[in-house]
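Two folds, back to back.
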Amino acid sequence: MVNMKPRLYLDIDGVLLANEENLAIGASEFIKYAVDNFEVYWLTTHCMDGTTAHAIEYVLRATDDDLRPYLEKFKPVTWGLAKTEAIDFNTPFLWFDDDCYSGERLALNEHNAFNSWIEIDLAKYPDQLVHELKLLQSLAE
């Protein structure tokens, strides 16, 4: 059986960014590893219309790291009310987000995919992306 690596869906606020001015601890390494080893999609209000320029600039203003080549490899998605509208439930995925609304939780449960949502809580675990990077490394082997 072929081991399919999951697609990654990433939010920005509260996930890649700790706040408006700072990347989350470990975000730079997480982004680079994710892009080098997985198919990565934006799943954020900053580009819900499928255009990625604003999302890229929004992340870049919070760091001096040259992440542009990596961020430009994130694929766009489109959605309206619920982020789950953009998720391909026919493909294994991990969705990194700090919030999952009731309608999104319902959609995940309907597709038996609730465990694919990785809740990021940087207030409680400021270095959570360091630990999530270890998860990605284990999945990429």
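---
second:
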Amino acid sequence: MIHIPGYQNVFMDSASRYTWNELNERVFIGNVLESLKKQMAGDFGKYEFYIYSNHSGHQVPASANLQPKNKVLIFISDETS
């Protein structure tokens, strides 16, 4: 897993087809994470967020095998393919 710049608990799922810098949704996701960080305050750090982007319906996110207590998967996909 690769850390997303600026966060200790946000990762790009290693099974993703794209890197963080290649995601068109990068700015939007960054804004969502910042909003969550403000709303959750100290609780934000209690969660691990994994961003997964892959168009294959058969590929399983690598983070699916991880067992953190509070895991959130953000799945980005091209619904038209």
